[in-house]
Amino acid sequence: MTLEEKLAKVPVENNFFSELSEVDIAYGKLMGKIAGKIILERTKNHLSQEDLAKKLGVKQSLISKWESGDNNFTFLQVIKIFNKLGIDIDIVFNPQNQYMQNSISPFRFTMPQKTKTIPSEDVRNILSEEFLEKESAIA
């Protein structure tokens, strides 16, 4: 008998999550999405749990707990983890009722990316070069 056949014979209660509230289910889904993204990006970057732990300054066992759902993260931890993995954080808030869905577009919150600061002298040089090019084109 294959594993699939054995699993098919296991009795499962029809309403497996009946004791969980909608909030508990939503929270579990959110934590699962975050854990899944960490696993995906970690493996895409060819990092072991130990490698990621060293980058974050934590123990490998904590990475394992995060990925398996045995330990939940704070938003600060998520930001640090995603930053080290080079992941942009994009949170979408969608209205729950039909009236709100039709009248208001979803709110998006995106973490700003780091920008490069250009020294003021370089800016002046760039602007003066553009000005000189425009002046010579007019003449």
TrEMBL record:
Alphabetical UniProt keywords: DNA-binding
PROSITE patterns: HTH_CROC1 (PS50943)
Domain HTH cro/C1-type: 38-92
InterPro entries, sorted: Cro/C1-type_HTH (IPR001387), Lambda_DNA-bd_dom_sf (IPR010982)
Keyword GTP-binding part of the UniProt annotation: no
Gene3D superfamilies given in the database record: lambda repressor-like DNA-binding domains
Molecular function via GO: DNA binding
Classification via Pfam families: HTH_3 (PF01381)
Name the UniProt record assigns to this protein: Antitoxin HipB
Species annotation: Caproiciproducens galactitolivorans
